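Now for a specimen:

…
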Amino acid sequence: MSSAGRALPDVGLVVAARQGDQRALDDVVAASLPLVYNIVGRALRGHADVDDVVQETLVRVIRYLPALNDPAAYRSWLVAITIRQVRDWETRRRVALNRDAGLDAIHNVPDPASDFAGMTILRLGLTDQRREVAEATRWLDPDDQELLSLWWLEETGEITRNEVADALGLSPGHVAVRIHRMKEQIQSARGVVRALRARPGCPDLGAVTAEWDGTPSSLWRKRLARHVRDCAFCGRLGTTLLPIDRLLAGMPLLPLPAGLGAHLPNAAAPAAAAQAVAPPNPTAGPAAGTTPPGATDAGGGQSVVDLAMNRPRGLVPSLAAGVAAAVVAITMAVVIQPDDPSAPSWAAPPSAAPTAVATPSVAPSPSARPSSRAPVAPAVSSTRKGVGVWNFAGASQALANSRAGWYYTWGTQHPGISTPRGATFVPMIRSAENVTADELARARAAGPYLLTFNEPDMPEQANMTVEQALDLWPQLMATGSKLGSPAVAWGGPDPQGWLDRFMTGAQARGHRVDFITLHWFGADFTTATAVAQLRQYLQAVYQRYRKPIWLTEFALIRFTGGGSQFPSQQQQAAFLTAATAMLGQLPYLHRYAWFGLPATDKDRSGLFRDGKEATVVGRAFQAAR
């Protein structure tokens, strides 16, 4: 195992950094940089923004380290923050590309000098089949690049499978399935790489590649892999390929770019930047605040954090160019604002905030016509994106076509509904009557997450008192699942509201609540106003409870005494598009689910009229992340 592996930074160093030891904080950040750089560099496929995302990641590490509850969980926490920053970058890039459609969008062009596969080959001196594996990673589907960045590090001994699962928000079993599929893609790409490099080459391969521009892509991987599979000449080339896992075993982290190590604490030469710096005794460093800006550390250089806090953004050259400056001068070039609305849930202090008016939801109306036809599933567009589902003709195919990463049915089962490839089902214990041994066993088997008590504050829904919910809660905790709070219909952040009294009682009794579950329905059909109200509501809830949030029902519906009023399909679609883009910018918003999948005369916020026909709102949902 490399010295940058699981042993660094150790718990004592993290504890000292949390307590304000400036030297320890410098060393924690320095020890973290190689891992962050490798995750980001491979996930972004060597894009020119790699240095910015590394910077944003370590900004959050430095800022929120004092709020880390378990120093022993530092590595898992670091990996999860890194993946979230990668996803946020992907969201921003997608928004920019949509805005600039038809223009020459230079921000989408990878920097040739920073191609991560090429750097891996050159800097680690890879040979033969290891080189082919690195080259094959260029051909992966974009959604698999993030997974690859973590799996690669798992195979080289830098992180564990549980850390991979935590970072992706999946169970280890689901991660194993996704990794298996990704490895199959890499294996087919290895055959393509070998066929393209063969000398003399296949006489028929030239005709297949006549229209190819030479840029690796998932589309051309599939086309060329089909030729390799059916061609006797090319097929023989792949008979000596070794298993990928054996080739990656023992490989170190990719060294940091030259020049980056010069400002690391205790770094003697650029080569030292490739490994995490050995930390000094945590008690030996100065306490926070004892080294004024501009002062020097024990090694004669300016404090890393001081460098960071006093260097303006934009003055640091690209990491890809190999001339990046100090570690946290890169990471902390942004002036930190204490009221940053994008701050993670674990860092925000409780504060009062205005509450958006949220109206109660309607109960789902299951259909008696289950679909027995298994869908052909398109790729899941995001593991965060979900939908509430009740059965109707074509429900399974509609769910697959929605590209949702997860779904739920207000129960512990999904009868008549097939789970699409790449998606997950999340069970729910809907009300007090569902707290039975059989239901709890099914919930445990469906894990790792469990939604609980649907709108207990509404007579027509779970209709439970706070005390009743608290009395039943230990049975839910016994499942071992990660538990969401009861999903109130409204008033989530209200002092002495249903949720506030439940959370206070749970804390007093020592009950575990892992995340907050919310519903929100907007009565104002103006897109900008509705999105602002939703964000305000989520922000107020997160500031009050400081826990991750799942938004499991939301749409624009105006509830009145005479029924429900809906906006036009175009208004609903515009809100969905703007709202999901906003949700992608909230680090504490871990998952969301639209209400709901079926579209009928009654449920006009729905996404599909049958298995194939998406509404205007459904098409907007398909494009959302």
